[in-house]
From TrEMBL:
Organism of this sequence: Myxacorys almedinensis A
Gene3D superfamilies: 3.30.470.10, D-amino Acid Aminotransferase, subunit A, domain 2 (3.20.10.10)
Pfam families reported in the protein's UniProt record: Aminotran_4 (PF01063)
Keyword Nucleotide-binding: no
InterPro entries on file: Aminotrans_IV, Aminotransferase-like, BCAT-like_C, BCAT-like_N, Class-IV_PLP-Dep_Aminotrnsfr
Cellular component per GO, a single term: cytosol
UniProt-listed GO biological process terms: carboxylic acid biosynthetic process
GO molecular function: lyase activity
Organism superkingdom: Bacteria
Similarity field: Belongs to the class-IV pyridoxal-phosphate-dependent aminotransferase family.
Name of the protein described by the UniProt record: 4-amino-4-deoxychorismate lyase
Keywords: Lyase
Length: 266
């Protein structure tokens, strides 16, 4: 155990001391962001400023206290000596809590061969425009998906439209361009999602933001999900109620999306 960072201090154990009345413990009252560190925090692919802005925006929206940002940065710098992936959470009173983890051992395999996903009907994130500590619905969906021998879960709304996966944003290839669910569908405005849309449009590539209803998802040639840690992961199989949908994990559009990610990060 290499430790974690909490409220201005490096902690070299695997427990944290919280009051039994702490709202973070009682209600999941924290906001957080998860980043992959590419060599150092200020590397363009790490998106340090974007992750900090995500936290600042949510804290302002909720009327919570901003952390000591220099202290938080110091903690993040310390954590990058030990971990390639950081989860930075902030409590309502401004306390910062930074944990770390390794990249998934099978990440290259997932990026190359793709994964299976399961449609988790009726499960959607709380306060979807923000990353809060109340992540019960995605966690439950992912646990259920794994029991179905799938590696991801797809969250839906009451109409059955696909929204996002338990950990990332959805992308689909059809009619020669990419499609993604719109923010109006109440999904997380993922940092990588936003950057990919900007990069695609900069390269004069069309991106359609439209609800992913049953009629649309059946006609995609390829689908993938993205987040700041795993980058671009193809989905080759989707298990839906009574239906199995198959997609091409090696579709050239997916490789183009991945190439664009690294091209713009250099």
């Amino acid at each position: 155990m290499l430790g974690f960072w909490y409220n201005g201090n490096a902690i070299t154990k695997d427990t944290i001391d919280l009051s039994i009345t702490d709202p973070g413990l009682l209600y999941g009252a924290t906001v957080f962001t998860t980043m992959r560190v590419y060599q150092f925090l200020d590397h363009s692919l790490t998106q340090w400023a974007g992750h900090c802005d995500r936290i600042k925006t949510s804290l302002d929206t909720f009327g919570w206290q901003q952390p000591d940002w220099s202290q938080l940065r110091h903690g993040a710098d310390w954590m990058t000596q030990h971990y390639p992936v950081l989860r930075i959470a902030v409590f309502p009173d401004g306390r910062e809590w930074i944990t770390g983890r390794a990249l998934p051992e099978d990440l290259t395999q997932r990026q190359t061969a793709g994964i299976a996903a399961w449609v988790a009907g009726g499960l959607a994130r709380s306060l979807p425009s923000h990353k809060t500590g109340n992540y019960l619905a995605p966690w439950l969906a992912l646990q259920a998906a794994q029991r179905m021998n799938a590696q991801e879960a797809i969250l839906t709304n009451s109409a059955g439209d696909w929204l996002e996966t338990s950990t990332g944003n959805l992308w689909g290839w059809k009619e020669g361009h990419w499609w993604t669910p719109p923010l109006e569908s109440e999904i997380l405005p993922g940092l990588l999602r936003s950057r990919l849309i900007s990069w695609l449009k900069w390269h004069n590539e069309e991106v359609t933001e439209a609800p992913w209803n049953a009629a649309l998802v059946e006609h995609f040639d390829a689908i993938a999900y993205t987040n700041c840690v795993v980058e671009v992961i193809p989905i080759h199989t989707v298990l839906n109620t009574g239906t199995t949908l198959s997609y091409a994990p090696t579709h050239p559009g997916i490789q183009t999306l991945r190439d664009l990610f690294f091209e713009e990060g250099n």
